[in-house]
Specification:
Blueprint lengths: L20 H14 L12 H8 L3 H13 L3 E4 L5 E4 L24 H23 L5 H16 L3 H17 L5 H16 L6 H19 L3 H23 L1
Antiparallel strand pairs: 1-2
Helix pairs in contact: 1-3, 2-3, 4-6, 4-7, 4-8, 4-9, 5-6, 5-8, 6-7, 8-9
Length: about 250
């Protein structure tokens, strides 16, 4: 199925605002790849388009892409159907990992760090759902939300985390604040790292899918309180599992 314009890669590919334009460009592209907004095997926008979207020079975009290519996140192909594509298999090793492929020991997760991430997530995402439900959404925005819901709830295995992230980022996008989506993306990266340390539970996925639908319907029917409540309950379920397994 072709995705409507705007879903999902453009969510994070907006003008950079820092004086460290190269580093922020790498960050935006890396988040776009790691959160699955452009999936494995899919093509990134062309260099010229990325430069316009990010408000930086093509040289900076070219250097950023080269850095991500060296790190194994993207590959460049020449020819009529060429371009920059997300690697089919993303790196799993952290920088500086031993040459024999062994992963370094997982750092101990403190209760304080877990609580900080969960508190930030609640503040950002519950507020996002409330504001999204309070806006007059365009037909295109409504379609994008429903499509992201369908894709997330149909996903299985390794695809689930990526498409779940898309859904949550779309809710943030619909809140109407251009500054909010990058904050949710940063927070989502932190939460995904926590989720990597616990098992995926089938009943929890089923329950989450039901809650996704409740959130989307509340937003689409313009009920801010219901949207905030549904999102709060959804996040609380994930928080219970993370606290149970990690604290």
């Amino acid at each position: 199925m072709d995705e409507p314009a705007g879903l999902p890669s453009e969510l994070l590919l907006r003008p950079v605002r820092s004086s460290n334009s190269f580093e922020e460009t790498v960050q935006r592209l890396l988040q776009t790849v790691r959160l699955g907004l452009v999936g494995p095997g899919e093509r990134l926008p062309a260099e010229r388009e990325l430069a316009t979207m990010l408000g930086v020079s093509r040289d900076i975009v070219r250097d950023a892409i080269a850095s991500l290519s060296d790190a194994g996140y993207v590959v460049s192909r020449r020819g009529r159907y060429g371009g920059t594509f997300v690697s089919e298999i993303l790196p799993t090793l952290t920088p500086g990992a031993p040459e024999d492929g062994a992963l370094p020991p997982t750092p101990e997760l403190s209760a304080e760090a877990i609580e900080d991430a969960l508190t930030l997530r609640e503040i950002l995402e519950v507020g996002a759902a409330r504001h999204a439900a309070g806006r007059a959404l365009s037909p295109s925005e409504r379609e994008l939300l429903w499509l992201s819901l369908i894709e997330a709830n149909a996903a299985t295995g390794e695809e689930y985390r990526r498409l779940d992230s898309r859904f949550h980022l779309m809710v943030g996008e619909l809140a109407g604040s251009a500054s909010l989506t990058p904050l949710i993306a940063d927070m989502r990266m932190r939460v995904n790292e926590l989720l990597d340390n616990i098992p995926s539970l089938g009943p929890n996925i089923t329950h989450s899918n039901t809650q996704h639908e409740q959130i989307a319907i509340a937003i689409l029917t313009g009920r801010p309180d219901a949207a905030a409540q549904a999102m709060s309950e959804h996040l609380a379920g994930t928080a219970l599992l993370l606290r149970g397994f990690l604290e």
